[in-house]
């Protein structure tokens, strides 16, 4: 027997809780990224310490990207479909997010293991700067997706 359907209000509260937790994860990601950018002497002076921090950041980055794609975006798009006015916007935004996902995956692949990270410490500052730019764009797109879905019920109610 299927569980009872949630009321629209309960469904929205569930989505808000999911998005809220995800945005907290985003905040942690930003803090870790800033901490990495603030490290001095990213050369071979303290390679193990740097590698450990980069590894933790990579794990958080992959968790954030995965939660977005496999949980948050799916729920937001499902909610958008209920109002029939934002699915195109949501689809467009999701396509735009693909580029930043590829950049994040490439960064993770290059720096996720000890050997990879230690072998590329010289490139780390430049790669972090590029990743920061990409993530800024990603966060703006994600915020646009959240906002478009969040405003849909109000626009729908005003028309009906």
UniProtKB/TrEMBL annotation:
InterPro entries: Rsd/AlgQ_sf, Sigma70_reg_Rsd_AlgQ
A Pfam family the protein falls into: Rsd_AlgQ
Keywords: Transcription, Transcription regulation
Membership in a protein family: Belongs to the Rsd/AlgQ family.
Name assigned to this protein: Sigma D regulator
């Amino acid at each position: 027997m299927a569980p009872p359907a949630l009321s629209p209000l309960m469904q929205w509260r569930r989505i808000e809780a999911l998005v809220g937790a995800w945005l907290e994860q985003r905040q942690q990601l930003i803090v870790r990224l800033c901490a990495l950018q603030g490290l001095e002497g990213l050369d071979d002076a303290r390679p193990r310490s740097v590698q450990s921090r980069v590894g933790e950041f990579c794990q958080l980055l992959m968790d954030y990207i995965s939660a977005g794609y496999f949980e948050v975006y799916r729920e937001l798009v499902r909610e958008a479909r209920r109002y029939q006015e934002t699915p195109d916007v949501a689809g467009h935004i999701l396509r735009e997010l693909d580029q930043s996902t590829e950049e994040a995956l490439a960064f993770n692949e290059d720096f996720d293991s000890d050997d990879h990270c230690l072998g590329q410490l010289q490139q780390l500052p430049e790669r972090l700067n590029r990743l920061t730019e990409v993530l800024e764009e990603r966060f703006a797109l994600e915020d646009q997706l959240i906002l478009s879905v969040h405003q849909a019920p109000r626009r729908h109610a005003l028309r009906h």
